[in-house]
Automatic annotation (TrEMBL):
InterPro entries: CoA-transferase_III (IPR050509), CoA-Trfase_fam_III (IPR003673), CoA-Trfase_III_dom3_sf (IPR044855), CoA-Trfase_III_dom_1_sf (IPR023606)
GO molecular function: transferase activity
The organism's place on the tree of life at top rank: Bacteria
Keyword field: Transferase
Transferase keyword on record: yes
Protein name: CoA transferase
Keyword Signal applies: no
Organism expressing this protein natively: OM182 bacterium MED-G24
Gene3D superfamilies for this protein: Crotonobetainyl-coa:carnitine coa-transferase, domain 1 (3.40.50.10540), formyl-coa transferase, domain 3 (3.30.1540.10)
Length: 388
């Protein structure tokens, strides 16, 4: 597999870092998850529903990893963590800036004993700037970045975004950065330090929303913007059974296909750019029309229409969607438990899923032995509280 032989030390918690390293594990990397002693290890072990004692959240962010539970405030625990970092190709941490320095596992310390290390710090606002010490999870960074202000419900008020975009974008950008650094190290022998901010990742994802912001120096009028409902053909509509459907492409030939079948060709010219108030008659027609049939009836109606139509699936329906199943984005283990699949599809050396998610600290002794610790050393560490 692509990352076979790459060693990763994962010091991160919750979602961005763990998902990044799971993506690496799926592609063959050896990932050692270092879990804290306090709080019982990785927090997402206890978040949400469980199957056979393992949370779905944990199973879908930690499969294929090994777990070592160390007290980093214990001298022996910190010493073992440094040994792990010394042999790692990649180190991922996601503490609030400054914490990793106090623990003695910062980039400068590790680079002295492992100059080729690729070290990534993931945080809400990055390692510099006036917000560097602010605590924040996904929602707060989305609010600062302006994303929540344009994520409006039907009442026109901000709503909590359904996808933790800051977490996910930072995870994927982090994966890209790590792989780029490993590629560069292959030719130079030099490692690197990566400073990834969740807020930066969000800002970088808004190029098609910056028109009014940059050109007019003003916030956008959300309901008139092309990707937020300004186009009648790019919008969400309620159906007779209080479900919803989507028209998801504003090109004029799609409008022609829909409106001709609905026998309203007179509305086609109104679907021409620009988006905004001029398209309200079409939106109003669609709102009234789509409420005359159920979602299932509209699915059947659109079957022969060349338009970017979609039903608004709930998450269970989405996981059962034939496209999702065909792409193996939901996979099942031998116990019948469902898991999220691998989104990166390589033709050669494809990723492989190891469904096993480790028990907390399950690999303490085995990993310590691989680092050269004797049985007596391991027992002494256990008694000292280094392993928790």
């Amino acid at each position: 597999m692509k990352l076979e032989g790459v060693r990763v030390l994962d010091l991160s918690l919750f979602l961005p870092g763990p998902l990044l390293t799971q993506m690496m594990a799926d592609q063959g990397a050896e990932v050692i998850k270092l879990e804290p002693v306090r709080g019982g290890g990785e927090p997402n072990r206890e978040i949400g529903p469980k199957r056979d004692g393992v949370s779905v959240y944990f199973a879908n962010t930690h499969r294929g990893k090994r777990s070592v539970q160390l007290d980093l405030k214990n001298d022996a625990g910190r010493a073992m963590a440094l040994k792990l970092a010394e042999r790692a190709d990649v180190v991922i941490e996601a503490f609030r800036p400054g914490v990793i320095n106090r623990l003695g596992l910062d980039y400068e310390t590790i680079a002295e004993i492992n100059p080729g290390v690729v070290y990534a710090s993931l945080s809400a606002f990055g390692q510099t700037g006036p917000y560097v010490k602010k605590p924040a999870h996904d929602l707060a960074t989305e609010a600062y970045a302006g994303v929540v202000s344009v994520n409006l419900g039907f009442d026109g008020k901000p709503a909590i975004p359904a996808v933790p975009a800051a977490d996910m974008l930072t995870s994927m950008m982090g994966l890209s950065a790590v792989v780029m650094s490993l590629l560069r190290r292959h030719t130079t022998g030099q490692g690197d330090y990566i400073d990834l901010a969740m807020m930066d990742s969000l800002i970088a994802s808004l190029p098609n929303s910056m028109g009014a912001v940059f050109a007019d120096k003003s916030p956008p009028m959300v309901k008139d913007e092309r990707i937020w409902g300004g186009y009648a053909m790019y919008n969400i509509y309620e159906t007779k059974d209080e479900r919803f459907i989507v028209l998801g492409a504003s090109e004029i030939h799609f409008a022609e296909a829909v409106l001709n079948k609905l026998e309203r060709p007179d509305l086609i010219p109104l679907c021409e750019p620009p988006p905004g108030p001029n398209q309200e008659p079409v939106r109003e027609f669609f709102r009234e029309t789509f409420k005359t049939r159920t979602q299932a009836e509209w699915i059947a109606w659109f079957e022969d229409v060349d338009a970017a139509f979609a039903p608004v699936n709930n998450l269970r329906e989405a996981m059962d969607d034939p496209q999702v199943r065909a792409r193996e984005m939901v996979i099942t283990d031998d116990r019948g438990h469902e898991h999220l699949g691998i989104p990166i599809k390589f033709r050669h050396e494809p990723g492989e899923v190891n469904f096993k998610a480790p028990d907390v600290g399950a690999d303490n002794s085995a990993v310590a032995q691989e680092l050269g610790y004797s049985d007596d050393d391991i027992e002494a560490m256990r008694k000292s509280g280094a392993f928790g």
